[in-house]
Protein backbone atom coordinates (compact mmCIF):
# COMPACT_ATOMS: atom_id res chain seq x y z
CA UNK A 1 0.00 0.00 0.00
CA UNK A 2 1.39 3.40 -0.96
CA UNK A 3 1.72 6.20 1.58
CA UNK A 4 -0.21 8.66 -0.55
CA UNK A 5 -3.95 8.25 -1.08
CA UNK A 6 -6.17 9.84 -3.69
CA UNK A 7 -9.73 11.06 -3.32
CA UNK A 8 -10.83 8.34 -5.74
CA UNK A 9 -9.42 5.74 -3.34
CA UNK A 10 -11.11 7.44 -0.39
CA UNK A 11 -14.46 7.45 -2.19
CA UNK A 12 -14.10 3.78 -3.12
CA UNK A 13 -13.30 2.77 0.46
CA UNK A 14 -16.22 4.74 1.87
CA UNK A 15 -18.60 3.23 -0.69
CA UNK A 16 -17.42 -0.31 0.01
CA UNK A 17 -17.66 0.25 3.77
CA UNK A 18 -21.19 1.63 3.38
CA UNK A 19 -22.25 -1.37 1.30
CA UNK A 20 -20.73 -3.79 3.81
CA UNK A 21 -22.52 -2.08 6.70
CA UNK A 22 -25.77 -2.04 4.72
CA UNK A 23 -25.69 -5.77 3.94
CA UNK A 24 -24.78 -6.80 7.49
CA UNK A 25 -27.24 -4.35 9.03
CA UNK A 26 -30.05 -5.61 6.79
CA UNK A 27 -29.36 -9.12 8.03
CA UNK A 28 -29.54 -7.97 11.67
CA UNK A 29 -32.78 -6.07 11.01
CA UNK A 30 -34.30 -9.10 9.34
CA UNK A 31 -33.57 -11.19 12.43
CA UNK A 32 -35.04 -8.61 14.78
CA UNK A 33 -31.75 -7.54 16.42
CA UNK A 34 -31.51 -4.12 18.11
CA UNK A 35 -28.43 -3.06 16.09
CA UNK A 36 -29.82 -2.73 12.56
CA UNK A 37 -28.76 -1.13 9.30
CA UNK A 38 -28.15 2.40 10.56
CA UNK A 39 -26.19 1.25 13.61
CA UNK A 40 -23.94 -1.16 11.74
CA UNK A 41 -23.35 1.31 8.90
CA UNK A 42 -22.29 4.03 11.36
CA UNK A 43 -19.90 1.69 13.15
CA UNK A 44 -18.40 0.46 9.86
CA UNK A 45 -17.95 3.96 8.50
CA UNK A 46 -16.42 5.16 11.77
CA UNK A 47 -13.72 2.49 11.60
CA UNK A 48 -13.11 3.31 7.94
CA UNK A 49 -12.75 7.03 8.63
CA UNK A 50 -10.28 6.35 11.47
CA UNK A 51 -8.01 4.42 9.12
CA UNK A 52 -8.38 7.00 6.37
CA UNK A 53 -7.23 9.72 8.71
CA UNK A 54 -4.18 7.68 9.72
CA UNK A 55 -3.41 7.11 6.04
CA UNK A 56 -3.63 10.85 5.34
CA UNK A 57 -1.26 11.61 8.22
CA UNK A 58 1.37 9.01 7.25
CA UNK A 59 3.51 11.40 5.13
CA UNK A 60 4.22 13.48 8.29
CA UNK A 61 7.49 12.84 10.15
CA UNK A 62 7.31 10.47 13.07
CA UNK A 63 10.63 11.26 14.80
CA UNK A 64 13.67 13.39 14.12
CA UNK A 65 17.16 12.26 15.08
CA UNK A 66 17.51 14.62 18.07
CA UNK A 67 14.05 14.04 19.62
CA UNK A 68 12.54 11.43 21.94
CA UNK A 69 9.01 12.30 20.81
CA UNK A 70 7.35 9.79 18.49
CA UNK A 71 4.10 10.33 16.65
CA UNK A 72 2.35 6.94 16.86
CA UNK A 73 -0.51 7.42 14.43
CA UNK A 74 -2.40 4.27 15.40
CA UNK A 75 -2.72 5.37 19.03
CA UNK A 76 -4.54 8.53 18.00
CA UNK A 77 -7.81 6.99 16.77
CA UNK A 78 -7.58 3.98 19.07
CA UNK A 79 -7.39 5.98 22.29
CA UNK A 80 -10.16 8.42 21.47
CA UNK A 81 -12.56 5.92 19.93
CA UNK A 82 -12.09 3.47 22.80
CA UNK A 83 -12.78 6.18 25.36
CA UNK A 84 -16.00 7.33 23.74
CA UNK A 85 -17.29 3.77 24.07
CA UNK A 86 -17.99 4.38 27.78
CA UNK A 87 -20.23 7.33 26.93
CA UNK A 88 -21.96 5.34 24.21
CA UNK A 89 -22.64 2.49 26.63
CA UNK A 90 -24.43 4.93 28.93
CA UNK A 91 -26.87 5.82 26.15
CA UNK A 92 -28.06 2.22 25.79
CA UNK A 93 -31.10 1.22 27.85
CA UNK A 94 -32.16 -2.41 28.21
CA UNK A 95 -35.93 -2.97 28.20
CA UNK A 96 -37.11 -6.57 28.53
CA UNK A 97 -36.05 -8.25 25.27
CA UNK A 98 -35.11 -5.06 23.47
CA UNK A 99 -32.40 -2.41 23.68
CA UNK A 100 -33.00 1.31 23.19
CA UNK A 101 -30.28 3.82 22.30
CA UNK A 102 -27.95 1.61 20.25
CA UNK A 103 -28.09 3.97 17.26
CA UNK A 104 -27.55 6.91 19.62
CA UNK A 105 -24.38 5.26 20.95
CA UNK A 106 -23.13 4.65 17.41
CA UNK A 107 -23.91 8.26 16.52
CA UNK A 108 -21.82 9.48 19.45
CA UNK A 109 -18.95 7.31 18.29
CA UNK A 110 -19.33 8.58 14.74
CA UNK A 111 -19.45 12.19 15.86
CA UNK A 112 -16.18 11.66 17.71
CA UNK A 113 -14.61 10.50 14.47
CA UNK A 114 -15.87 13.63 12.75
CA UNK A 115 -14.07 15.68 15.40
CA UNK A 116 -10.85 13.76 14.73
CA UNK A 117 -11.15 14.43 11.02
CA UNK A 118 -11.80 18.15 11.31
CA UNK A 119 -9.18 18.53 14.05
CA UNK A 120 -6.60 16.72 11.91
CA UNK A 121 -7.21 19.06 9.00
CA UNK A 122 -9.12 16.63 6.75
CA UNK A 123 -11.85 19.17 6.12
CA UNK A 124 -13.20 17.70 2.89
CA UNK A 125 -13.25 14.19 4.32
CA UNK A 126 -15.01 15.44 7.46
CA UNK A 127 -17.60 17.27 5.35
CA UNK A 128 -18.24 14.18 3.23
CA UNK A 129 -18.54 12.06 6.39
CA UNK A 130 -21.10 14.48 7.83
CA UNK A 131 -23.25 14.15 4.71
CA UNK A 132 -22.96 10.37 4.90
CA UNK A 133 -24.15 10.41 8.52
CA UNK A 134 -27.18 12.51 7.59
CA UNK A 135 -28.05 10.05 4.83
CA UNK A 136 -27.69 7.03 7.13
CA UNK A 137 -29.73 8.56 9.96
CA UNK A 138 -32.35 10.15 7.72
CA UNK A 139 -32.89 8.15 4.55
CA UNK A 140 -32.08 4.73 6.03
CA UNK A 141 -34.66 5.31 8.76
CA UNK A 142 -37.40 5.13 6.13
CA UNK A 143 -35.78 2.14 4.42
CA UNK A 144 -35.95 0.20 7.72
CA UNK A 145 -39.75 0.55 7.66
CA UNK A 146 -39.86 -1.89 4.74
CA UNK A 147 -37.62 -4.53 6.31
CA UNK A 148 -39.53 -7.51 7.77
CA UNK A 149 -38.31 -8.27 11.29
CA UNK A 150 -38.57 -11.45 13.29
CA UNK A 151 -40.64 -11.42 16.49
CA UNK A 152 -41.20 -14.11 19.10
CA UNK A 153 -43.88 -14.88 21.64
CA UNK A 154 -45.45 -17.64 23.71
CA UNK A 155 -49.12 -18.57 23.37
CA UNK A 156 -50.79 -20.55 26.15
CA UNK A 157 -54.33 -21.93 25.87
CA UNK A 158 -56.27 -23.64 28.63
CA UNK A 159 -59.48 -25.52 27.91
CA UNK A 160 -62.80 -26.10 29.63
CA UNK A 161 -63.04 -29.07 31.98
CA UNK A 162 -65.96 -30.59 30.09
CA UNK A 163 -64.47 -30.24 26.60
CA UNK A 164 -63.17 -33.67 25.50
CA UNK A 165 -61.49 -33.66 22.07
CA UNK A 166 -57.91 -34.56 22.96
CA UNK A 167 -55.39 -34.96 20.14
CA UNK A 168 -57.94 -33.96 17.51
CA UNK A 169 -58.24 -30.49 19.10
CA UNK A 170 -54.46 -30.22 19.48
CA UNK A 171 -53.87 -30.94 15.79
CA UNK A 172 -56.62 -28.51 14.78
CA UNK A 173 -55.10 -25.62 16.77
CA UNK A 174 -51.54 -26.23 15.55
CA UNK A 175 -52.76 -26.39 11.95
CA UNK A 176 -54.66 -23.13 12.41
CA UNK A 177 -51.60 -21.35 13.88
CA UNK A 178 -49.41 -22.46 10.98
CA UNK A 179 -52.05 -21.18 8.53
CA UNK A 180 -51.68 -17.73 10.18
CA UNK A 181 -48.03 -17.51 8.97
CA UNK A 182 -46.58 -18.19 12.42
CA UNK A 183 -43.71 -20.67 12.76
CA UNK A 184 -44.01 -23.04 15.73
CA UNK A 185 -40.63 -23.60 17.43
CA UNK A 186 -41.79 -25.56 20.44
CA UNK A 187 -44.98 -27.16 21.73
CA UNK A 188 -45.86 -28.46 25.19
CA UNK A 189 -49.22 -29.97 26.07
CA UNK A 190 -50.92 -31.31 29.19
CA UNK A 191 -53.73 -33.87 29.20
CA UNK A 192 -55.79 -34.22 32.38
CA UNK A 193 -57.27 -36.79 32.43
CA UNK A 194 -55.44 -38.69 29.72
CA UNK A 195 -58.00 -38.01 26.96
CA UNK A 196 -58.85 -34.36 27.74
CA UNK A 197 -56.59 -31.58 26.50
CA UNK A 198 -56.09 -29.27 29.48
CA UNK A 199 -53.29 -26.93 28.31
CA UNK A 200 -51.36 -26.19 25.11
CA UNK A 201 -48.32 -23.89 24.95
CA UNK A 202 -46.57 -22.83 21.72
CA UNK A 203 -43.33 -20.90 21.11
CA UNK A 204 -44.10 -18.80 18.03
CA UNK A 205 -42.00 -16.80 15.58
CA UNK A 206 -43.34 -14.49 12.88
CA UNK A 207 -42.27 -11.48 10.83
CA UNK A 208 -43.64 -7.94 10.77
CA UNK A 209 -42.33 -4.95 8.84
CA UNK A 210 -40.02 -2.32 10.29
CA UNK A 211 -40.99 -0.42 13.41
CA UNK A 212 -44.40 -1.99 13.86
CA UNK A 213 -44.88 -2.90 17.50
CA UNK A 214 -44.25 -6.57 17.97
CA UNK A 215 -47.36 -7.32 20.02
CA UNK A 216 -49.45 -10.36 19.27
CA UNK A 217 -50.31 -11.13 15.62
CA UNK A 218 -53.90 -9.95 15.17
CA UNK A 219 -54.80 -13.18 13.39
CA UNK A 220 -54.38 -15.10 16.65
CA UNK A 221 -57.35 -13.25 18.13
CA UNK A 222 -59.72 -15.77 16.56
CA UNK A 223 -58.41 -18.40 18.99
CA UNK A 224 -60.02 -16.45 21.86
CA UNK A 225 -63.51 -17.31 20.63
CA UNK A 226 -62.69 -20.89 19.73
CA UNK A 227 -65.04 -23.46 21.24
CA UNK A 228 -63.62 -24.98 24.41
CA UNK A 229 -60.98 -22.28 25.11
CA UNK A 230 -61.25 -21.28 28.77
CA UNK A 231 -58.11 -19.13 29.14
CA UNK A 232 -55.95 -17.28 26.60
CA UNK A 233 -52.45 -16.14 27.65
CA UNK A 234 -49.83 -14.29 25.56
CA UNK A 235 -46.22 -13.44 26.51
CA UNK A 236 -43.56 -11.80 24.33
Automatic annotation (TrEMBL):
Primary location: membrane
MgtC/SapB/SrpB/YhiD N-terminal domain ranges (all copies): 14-145
Chain ranges passing through the membrane: 6-27, 39-58, 73-93, 124-143
Signal peptide extent: none
Compartments, record wording: Cell membrane
InterPro entries according to UniProt: MgtC/SapB/SrpB/YhiD_fam (IPR003416), MgtC_SapB_SrpB_YhiD_N (IPR049177)
Pfam families linked to this entry: MgtC
Keywords from the UniProt entry: Cell membrane, Membrane, Transmembrane, Transmembrane helix
Protein's membrane topology: Multi-pass membrane protein
Family per similarity comment: Belongs to the MgtC/SapB family.
Descriptive protein name: MgtC/SapB family protein
Amino acid sequence: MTVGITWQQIALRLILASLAGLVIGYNRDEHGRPAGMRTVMLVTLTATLAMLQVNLLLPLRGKVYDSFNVMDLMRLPLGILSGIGFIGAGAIIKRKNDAVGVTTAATLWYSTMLGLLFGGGQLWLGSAATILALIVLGVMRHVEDFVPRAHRGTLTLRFADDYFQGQELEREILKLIQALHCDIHGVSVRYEPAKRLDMLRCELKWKAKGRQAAGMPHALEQLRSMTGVREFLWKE
